[in-house]
Design a protein that fits this description.
Blueprint: E1 2-8, H1 15-29, H2 33-36, E2 39-43, H3 45-55, H4 60-66, H5 69-75, H6 91-101, E3 112-119, E4 124-129, H7 138-145, E5 155-157, E6 160-164, H8 173-183, E7 188-194, H9 205-208, H10 213-219, H11 221-226, H12 230-238, E8 243-246, H13 262-288
Parallel strand pairs: 1-2, 1-7, 2-3, 7-8
Antiparallel strand pairs: 3-4, 3-6, 5-6
Helix pairs in contact: 1-4, 1-13, 3-7, 6-7
Length: 290
């Protein structure tokens, strides 16, 4: 028997592209996304999407609403000088997450769910799993998995502090495979992996060779770290027939993952629609055949 897994990348507001693709997929399937997949795994903004799909039982239209212009502008508000702290405060972002998740726990998930974070105390990746972390507030896990350093403050859960899962794994496809095998060791595992686009613009080596911390912050070091392609290459090598990747280079979408302008959000939606046009039929075939 085949178990189907959904893996969702980080990428800030570009998660709207993933949500748009999922809306088209759900419309075509005629059933909720979390009913089709046996495990949903996400990192950063993908972690928020994963928790929303499973804990809130959101249909894809409501999922896209979570990434509305109003919500995103609230989340990415109250800018501060980074030299003195995170670029954005946590209060508005937490307010949005609490409004959606309320007092629900991660273990309330209707589908097995994993959100990737990074544990600052133990300096290691921490997976918050609905089938293991029973009494953890869903909104706190959503806040932690998306707490990108320099952008948002770290999040405390119990005794430890956590930051964005993209620090170690922005594309959680290998974690998704691993957790699925742990849950279903004798089943066939197929993983649909959805990215958030990648920036193909080159850096000028001569100009960047002596960059320090402030130059790299200005130049987008977080985006560089988040766009590592190693997980995709490994998954494609290990599971060529059981792995499908949805992604593309950024054309009209800003590589900065906190651009909440109407123009950029529309471009994010359009990118998701292009993905569906290019990969929709192949995706249906991939998740409909053993």
């Amino acid at each position: 028997m085949t178990k189907y897994v959904l893996s969702l990348d980080g990428g800030g507001v570009r998660g709207l592209s993933s949500a748009t693709f999922l809306k088209n997929l759900e419309d075509e399937l005629g059933e909720p996304i979390n009913k089709k997949f046996d495990l949903i795994c996400g990192s950063s903004t993908g972690g928020i999407l994963a928790i929303a799909l499973s804990v809130l039982n959101l249909d894809s239209s409501s999922l896209a609403d979570l990434y509305s212009s109003e919500n995103l502008k609230r989340i990415f508000s109250k800018k501060t000088l980074r030299i003195f702290g995170a670029k954005y405060g946590a209060s508005k972002k937490n307010d949005v997450l609490i409004e959606y998740f309320g007092k629900l726990l991660l273990s309330d998930a209707a589908t097995a769910t994993v959100a990737v974070t990074y544990d600052l105390k133990n300096r290691s990746t921490k997976l918050f799993a609905s089938y293991e972390d029973v009494y953890v507030d869903a909104w706190k896990v959503a806040a932690a998995t998306s707490a990108a350093p320099t952008y948002f403050p770290a999040v405390q859960i119990s005794e430890n502090w956590y930051v964005d899962g993209s620090i170690s794994t922005n594309n959680p496809v290998l974690i998704a495979f691993s957790e699925a095998k742990k849950l279903w060791p004798y089943e066939n595992i197929k993983v649909l992996s959805i990215g958030t686009g990648y920036d193909s613009k080159s850096f000028n080596g001569i100009k960047t060779k002596n960059w320090g911390i402030f130059s790299w912050l200005k130049g987008g070091i977080m985006q560089v770290l988040m766009e590592s392609n190693s997980e995709h290459l490994i998954a494609n090598s290990l599971y060529p027939n059981n792995y499908m990747r949805i992604n593309s280079r950024l054309v009209y979408v800003n590589h900065e993952f906190d651009d909440t302008s109407g123009k950029n959000l529309l471009a994010c939606k359009d990118m998701g629609k292009v993905w569906w046009k290019n990969y929709g039929k192949k995706t249906i075939n991939f998740i409909s055949t053993d």
